[in-house]
Every structure is written in structure tokens, then in C-alpha cells.
Structures
1.
Amino acid sequence: MEDHFKYSCLDLFMTLFGVVSFFFDLGADIWTAVEFYLEGDYHWLGVQLFLFFLSSVLVHIFSWIWFSNDTLEPGFKSETRTEGWMVKYGLVFHIFQLGLPLRYMVAIELGRMALKGGQSGHAIYRTCDLSMLRLFETFSESTPQLTLMVYIVIQNNKAEIFLCVKIALCLFAITGSVVDYHRSLRSFLPEKSKLRCSSSIVYFLWNLLLIAPRVGAVALFTSVFPPYIALHFLLLWTALLLWAWAQHTDFMDSGPGEWLYRAMVALIWYFSWFNVAEGGTMGRSLIYHTFMAVDSSILLGTWYWYRDPLVTDHYVLPLLLALLASYLLGLLLKTIYYKLFHPKIWQPLPESEESNLQMRCLSISESSNSLNIAVNFRSGPTVYPSTVVVNKRMRTLANNFYSSASTPCNLTMNGIEMDSLV
């Protein structure tokens, strides 16, 4: 089990990459805001600042809920001075929107300790939380801001330097968060089922190729009907929120927190697919992509009908073909990923074994007084020593992502309830 949650230099590199991305993005936000102010574009300045502060508040709410819940776990203790600051003054740091930088400091300190021979579990625990927070920040700030910048370029029919820099940094942030999120999911695979970097590359490419035409469609529609994009977003977001509720998500520890999570999922779904429930992944994915393809086609069709031909005729055909090619290539790469790179670790139970499920669960719980066990029938049981700290939030998402069908078995060991996939 030592190797299962082994912290590596690449993990530390991805954390440092996140720090660099965070501060570069912050610098670009300040630069863009100053440029908008100097040019008198106060409405765009207001939209950018609204997206920035809304994203920051949402991310810090999640961060504080998770950290405050972690401190209530049996046996919790801070292992670094910075983490001790979070325990004492965490609420103050989060109110002043400094919780995320503090989390980066904690993750770096724990990562250095793990590389010097310390326990890897705690470092990976904090790193997993950071990867989720970065993903939330990406789809609540970077992706909407990318859409805004593309819209401004289309509206002005020119690309200024600061807009190009901001677009590049938004893409940089999307790249980092998607790859880091996939790496965090992979950390929950048994060692012999670990995937190579090629899987993360394909995962990133199909996400980017599907996000790009969606951003393009929204930006193009906004260029002809700016007032109606907010109405379009609210109507679609509400429908997606209800769909998330219908899937009975169980990610947070409280009812209000779960609804906040569903609201974030609906926001992510506005731009990209995100799996939130076990089983039936292909069916839900097909429904989602069909619905979003129809919606994006309506947005593009509306833009094509109401656009200014004198301004757009020279690029309309190449642009539409590029968006279509990107979308189709993204779907192709997604299919390739699930066929060749995506491990189906937790297999459905054969009918002959389903009747023995409860007996198996009972047998495991009775014979595992000092172990945490997650069982799969292809590779056998994965055994977690009781000292290993497992991030239950990322474990839940990993279960959703890597299992097409599974049967849960709740085990209570050492006073701690675990979900074991049997």
C-alpha cells in the first residue's frame, strides 16, 4: 500500500504550476482591468470584476466548508505551521479571500515533507482539495473570462495585446486545472492500473477541443445579442441544476452545501461535461452532448442570421468549419480515451455473486478491525493501512469517474465509516 498514495516530484511540480498560474492570472486580471478603465470600457470592466469576485467568493466558500469539516474528523491534527494558522485564523483568511494562497503554502510544505521521507497521505489529501478548487475556479472565472475576451475581440474586430495575453492565460489555467484534476483522480487507482501521461494528454485534448467550440458559440451569439446571453445562461443553468439534483449527488456533508455543489456542477456543465454520479455514464454523456450540440447550433445559427456580412463574410465559413471540426475531433478523442485509456477498475458483479454481497461485506467488516479496504474483482482488494488519510471528496469523484457500475458497501472500521466498492 505504500506506493498507492506515494507523493512524487511531479505532484509538487503541479502544485507549483498552480501557484504560478494563480499569480499570473491575477496579474493579467489587474492589467486587463486597468486597460478597460483607461479606455473607458466600464461595462466590460464591471463584467470582468464581477466574474473575478464571484469566482473567488465561491471557491473560498467551498474551501472553508471543506477545511472546517476536516478539522472535525477524528484524529485531525495540523502538521505544519501554516496549517496551524489555518486552524486558528482560517475563517479570517477566507473572508479576506486569502484561503487559496494559504492552501498552496500548506500543500507545498506538506509536499516537501513527503519527499523528504514523511507520510504522503496528508500531502496528497491537501493536493486533491486544491485540484478541485482550481477546477471550480477555472469554470467560474477563467472560462467565462475567456468567453468575454473572445467576444470583445469579435465585437471590436481587432485583438489588442492585453486581450491576447488574457486569452492565453485563460487557456493556460484551463490546461493546468484539467490535467491536475485528472492526475488527482488517477491517484486512487491501484498501482498496477496507473495510467501513463499519455492518458492525461488525451483527456486534456478532448476537453479543450469540446470547450473551445462552446466558448466560440457563446461569444458569437453574445456579439449580436448581448442582453440575451444572461437570460440564456440563467435558463440553461437552471435546467442543468435540476438535472444535477435528479442525479442524487452526494458530495458535500450538508444539504445546503450539496445544493451549492450542484450549482457549481451546473456552471461547469454550461461549458463542459463533468461526471457526478456512478453508473450510466455513457447514457448521461450522450444526453448531455446531444443537448449541448443542439444549443450551440442554435446560438451559431442565430449569430449567422443576424451577423454583419460586410465584417464577417471573409472569415465566417472557415470559422464555422473550425468549430465543427474541433467539436467532432473532441468527441472522437473522448471515444478513444474511454476505449483505450480509461480503466474500468470496478466491474459489475456477476449474478452468481450478487446474492453473496451482504455476506462478503459482513466478512470484510468483521475481519478488518485495523484496515480500510476497497475491493474490486479484477485486481483484488486494495488495502489501506489505518494511518493512511484518504480524501473522501476526491475518492467519491474517482468512484464516479472510473466505475461504470458498482455496488456500495458501507463499512465501519475503527469508528470511521468507509464506502467500500465490492
Note: Confidence is low (pLDDT under 50) at residues 346-388, 404-422.
2.
Amino acid sequence: MARGNQSMVSEFVLLGLSNSWELQLFFFVIFTIVYVASVLGNIIIILTIVSDSHLNSPMYFLLSNLSFIDICQSNFATPKMIADFLVEHKTISFEGCMAQIFLLHSFVGSEMMLLVAMAYDRFIAICKPLHYSTIMNRKLCIIFVAISWAVGILHSVSHLAFTVDLPFCGPNEVDSFFCDLPLVIELACMDTYEMEIMTLTNSGLISLSCFLALVISYTVILVIVRRRSSSGSSKALSTLTAHITVVILFFGPCIYFYIWPFSRLSIDKFLSVFYTVCTPLLNPIIYSLRNEDVKSAMRKLKSRKLTFQLARFSGHNSSSLIPT
């Protein structure tokens, strides 16, 4: 109601990544490929984990949930961005803009918490292996996932509660391919300094807390692993490398944005693309290439599918040979 009385903006104009028609066609092809690969890659990881009994462990349960969040993150803005490459006037409704802000911060907040849960899982597996199955039971894993989503949604609602009632009375051009919260706040017809500080504090607090927890956890784990020289430690180190790589790629752009949250540079658009479009693709690539168990399960899944298709084909041929 407050928005209806104060705001005159019913839609926002997204300036996108480039004004060049040739570049937009190039981006259309590239990001369509990345989007499809990202969604299919994460779906394959989920199907692989669900279908293989050897991957019925807390680590892979959490990994499958990470892939689900990545699928969600791939769909909150990327399909519209791809479609907008083919149109000249790129707009999004006020409601659609608020929805993008809500979804982005929900997925990002949830993924941060889930990465912490995955670090805790590795900490217990390596530091307390004899108690691993007792501590990391299915009930605790479900609690971790539920907490991750709850924190992500609460984090997003806390942003949206202040943003939705801001008075947007004129400027409506967002210099990005989606509704980025700091850029939208700047369009409000009021002094937004306090709002900017609140946004920075809110997002910075959850980001810094999760990042510090991850750094401490993986530092302790790496110290313990380096003291061992068994083949099990080598496997653990390989798994840890995949986890740490994902953490660096996920938090790197995030930390950059919170160091310079409201002073935008030309490189920021491409970091936003990497953060929202490319990161969901990197997770399945990293985990599938660095994890022998996942690669083995994928080969089994492919083999079973091939066997099923051959059996179905031979059964069809046999039935066609039966005289009528």
C-alpha cells in the first residue's frame, strides 16, 4: 500500500551486458550453452547420487542438495537474460524485480550455509572418523538442509522488507542484466545511505560468518590431513581440494562486491555473470572431475542406461519376429 502511494515506477529497464547486436548474439549462444550444461550437469549429479547405493552418505546427500540450489540459482535470472539478448527493449516489472532480489538472496544465503554444513561433515569424517556415522546421521543432515533454507529465506526477507516500500518515482534503469539489490536501491527517490549500510551489514555479516567458519574448518582439516601419509589421506585431500575450490570460486566475487558494494566498475557486470551463471556450472564439473566415487557412479549409471536401451531394443525386435 505504501508503495502504491509513493512509487510511480511499474517496471525497470535492464541495460544488460552490451549494446552491440553482434555481441548480444554471441552472448546468446554462449550463455545458452552454459545454462543448459549447468542445469543438466546438476541434474546428472542428483540422479547419480540417488541411483547409486555407494553414494548413500551424508557428504553426497549434502552435495545433491547443493546441486539442487545451483539448479534454482541457474533459473532465477539466466533464462530472462538469454531471452533479452534477442530484444532491444529489456524490461522487468516491479514485482518481477522484487522476486529476483528475493530468489537470489535466498539461494545465495542457503548455499553459504550448506557449504558450512559440508565443511562440518568433512571435519567430522577426518577428525573423528570412528564417530562419523553416529554424529552425521540422516536426521542431522536434514536439519542442516532445513537450516540452510531457513537462513537463506530469512536473509532475503530482511532485504526485501525494506526494499519493497522504497519510493521509486522516476529513474528506473538498472545497469545490469538482472535486478541487483544495490543498483535498485540507488534508484530510490530518497537518501539511501542508511539503507546501503543496512544492506552491506546484513549481507556482509552472513558472508563473513560463513567464510570465517569455512576457513577455520578447512585449515584445521588440512593440518590434520598433512600429518598423515596413508592412501585414505590422499583421497581425503582430493575431496577437500574440490570443496575448497568451490568455496573460493563462490566467495571470491561475493567478497569483492562487499568491499566495493555501491561503487560499480565495468568489470562488475562480468563478475555478476560469473557469480550467477557460471558458478552453478563449475560445481558439477569440479566435483565430478575431482571425485572418483562420483565418476565411477556416473559410469555405472551410463552403463545401466545403455543396457536398458539394448534390452528394450532387442525385446522390440524379438516381438516383431513373432508371426501373427
Note: Strands lie at 11-14, 91-93, 173-174.
